[in-house]
Specification:
This protein has helices at about 1-20, 50-60, 65-75, 80-85. It is mainly α and about 90 residues long.
Length: about 90
């Protein structure tokens, strides 16, 4: 009986090994990392009106003013975002 188990185990290992070696022979596709977005426009931290808005928002929402100024100050103008936020040019019909 031990030879039967050893033979079965050997057969199972051989089957798994051959299945691992079998394939198309084609290399797997490599994923290309997305390019980081290029900076568009200056940071909002350089704009006095944006910093005034940050102070006003912090006061209205009872938030930490330094945190709000930092969050808004790290933002940049992005024309793509502005375009995507506009209403559609054509009405959507179901």
């Amino acid at each position: 009986m031990p030879f039967y188990r050893a033979g079965s185990a050997l057969l199972l290992i051989a089957a798994c090994t051959s299945a691992a070696w079998a394939g198309d022979g084609k290399p797997a596709k490599k994923t290309v990392a997305a390019k980081p977005a290029q900076a568009q426009g200056p940071l909002y931290s350089t704009r006095p009106d944006a910093m005034q808005f940050a102070d006003d928002m912090a006061a209205r929402r009872d938030l930490d003013p330094d945190w709000v100024r930092d969050a808004i100050g790290q933002s940049r103008y992005n024309a793509t975002v502005v375009r995507l936020m506009q209403p559609p040019t054509k009405a959507f019909v179901k």
